[in-house]
Write a structure and sequence with these properties.
mainly alpha, 71% helix, CPA3_antiporter_subunitC, membrane, transmembrane, cell membrane, Cation:proton antiporter subunit C
C-alpha cells in the first residue's frame, strides 16, 4: 500500500490541494477566504494537467535542424525549406520521445482566465463591502433580507 502511495505521490498532492480549496469555498463565510479557496482549487487542477503532460525521459517537442549554412535570400524559399524539412523529419520521429505540449499550453490559458476571474471576483467583493459594509456571507445575507 505504501508503494502505491509513493508511486502516485503527485496525484495525492493534487487531491489534497483540491480538497483544501473545495473546503474553503464551501465552509468559509468570508468572501476573500472563498476566493483563496477557489485559487487553490484552480492551482491544483493546473498542476494536475501539467503533470499528466510530462513523460519520464522525454524532451521538448522541438526539431533541431542545422541548416546547410547558406543564405536562402528569400523568405518564401526559407519557409518552403522548413516545411520540407519538417515533413521529412516527421516521418522519422518517435512521438514517445517528446512531451505533449498541449496540456501546458492549455494551462497557460487557464492561468490567464484564473487571474481574470480572481480580479473580477475581488472587484465584486469590494462592491459588496461598499454596499453592505461586510464581506462575511451571513451578514450580507441578513442585510439583503432587511
Amino acid at each position: 500500500m505504501l508503494d502505491l502511495i509513493i508511486a502516485k505521490f503527485n496525484y495525492w498532492v493534487y487531491i489534497v490541494l483540491m480538497m483544501i480549496g473545495l473546503y474553503a469555498m464551501i465552509a468559509k463565510n468570508n468572501y476573500i477566504k472563498k476566493l483563496i479557496g477557489m485559487t487553490i482549487f484552480q492551482t491544483a487542477i493546473m498542476l494536475f494537467y501539467v503533470s499528466i503532460g510530462a513523460k519520464q525521459g522525454a524532451t521538448i517537442p522541438i526539431i533541431d535542424h542545422h541548416g546547410d549554412g547558406g543564405d536562402h535570400g528569400e523568405a518564401a524559399e526559407a519557409v518552403g525549406h522548413a516545411v520540407e524539412t519538417a515533413a521529412h523529419a516527421a516521418g522519422s520521429l518517435d512521438p514517445d520521445a517528446y512531451v505533449n505540449p498541449l496540456p501546458h499550453v492549455l494551462m497557460l490559458t487557464a492561468i490567464v482566465v484564473g487571474v481574470a476571474t480572481l480580479g473580477v471576483a475581488m472587484a465584486v467583493v469590494q462592491k459588496i463591502h461598499d454596499q453592505y459594509g461586510s464581506i462575511e456571507e451571513d451578514e450580507v445575507l441578513k442585510r439583503i433580507k432587511l
